[in-house]
């Protein structure tokens, strides 16, 4: 789920995995 949101928002999910999962 976190990766999907990150990819959709074009966010560097590789550099911010904990932040993306923490926010969402």
TrEMBL record:
One Pfam family this sequence matches:
Macro
Q: What residues form the membrane-spanning segments?
A: none
Q: Where is the Macro domain?
A: 1-24
Quote the SUPFAM superfamilies the UniProt record gives: Macro domain-like
Protein name, per record:
Macro domain-containing protein
**Organism field:** Nymphaea colorata (pocket water lily)
């Amino acid at each position: 789920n976190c990766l999907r949101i990150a990819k959709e928002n074009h966010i560097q999910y590789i550099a911010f995995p904990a932040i993306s999962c923490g926010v969402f």
